[in-house]
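Working notes for the structural subgroup meeting. M.R. asked for a predicted model of this chain before we commit to crystallization trials. I am recording the input and output together here so anyone reviewing the notebook later can reproduce the run.

Input as submitted:
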Amino acid sequence: MSPPSRPDLHTTREALRRGAGSAAAELELSIDIARSAACEHAFLKTGFDEARRLAADPATVASPLMGLAVSVKDLFDVRGETTAAGSLVLAGAAPAAQDCPPVARLHAAGAGLLGRTNMSEFAFSGVGINPHFGTPANPADPTVPRIPGGSSSGAAVSVATGAAFIGLGSDTNGSIRIPAALCGIVGFKNTARRVPTEGALPLSTTLDTVCAMTRSVRDAILAHEILADRKVPLSDVPLAGLRLAVARAWMLDGLEAPVALAFDRALAALRDAGARVEEIELAPMRDLGAILARGTFAGAESYAWHRDLLAKAGDRYDPRVRFRIEQNANMKAYEYVDLLQARRQWIARITAGIEGFDAVLSPTVPIVAPPLAQVAPGAERDAEFFRVNTLLLRNTSVVNMLDGCAISIPCHTPGELPVGLMIWQSAMRDDTVLNVARQAEAALAEKHR
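Returned structure, recorded in token form:
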């Protein structure tokens, strides 16, 4: 099982530069997909006419993105539009006066903004359910509606269906990598400080990261270069020149059979291609539960942002989101300060534990996408929803606590539900992670052939 086939951004740009087709025709194909049943509930608002105008502008066609379709999560300010973050309570808020920096950079690069994508309300869930506007179904399985993953659910579906070449989203505890893994596409979480967060509605000011999903690693590199306004130096170091770690503690616990199988095959493919893959315990990983026992950054910081709004309109929130925010209402100031200190110490221990490795390998999430019906809105399914949400966030949130960078690339074989391989490192090692991912993607593709 896999998303419908459409060439990635690089292939499409190369064809257009050769004179094969036009940006306007490619945009119309994107619009057709966005309007199709495959993208039902993926978009909360569309801007087809403005995108068409850009795709017909010769100056746009000469730009890096050539007027090709990009989607924007409903978390980001776009001039003249309301940023509601998938909620009802902000639906009447004043429209943004200007584009936030990431959107401005996409505009400057010639993006055709297809529309605003659906999301978990206020980005507070890895599942992707939205009870207000519906939930887009994962396109990887045409027979059983499955969760898309969240919180960047609509962004993932827009890319996986081929409607958008880049899906702008955010990653606070895994909100880019989780839906990328479940939908069978690529999701890159850069080091948080690389891309400005101004003009993005916050979940956790400590952990929030602005980043994107794409259909290939090379497209992920281009998207990152645009969003971070920097050039990624490409390396030709082969897999045989890389030393990669597999973290046993925490990351490999309780894997579903399809995930364990795909992950083991991916490791075998990398070893066959010459990579030195070594298992390490990385014991400090198991300390995370105790560190977060009294509260989390996302919980404390989201409550600080939402407390007045909850007092006025709490009944209009997704009940599951409201519950998670209010859980942290009683976190004490000294507990928050202790959490900051514990994080600094934990980062130092994890960084020391992976010293000498080019990157670390883990399953992105320990499960494949469960059916939507299993976690749909309803008090009778709340326990299952929270169980699934905890599992989805488990591996990816490690990298956010580390202040690190990570990419999820597909590692399943055709005909299987998608599984993501997460390649990660500590802060500011983005270029290494992206270059390792280029090599890993090629090795996995060769193995599948």
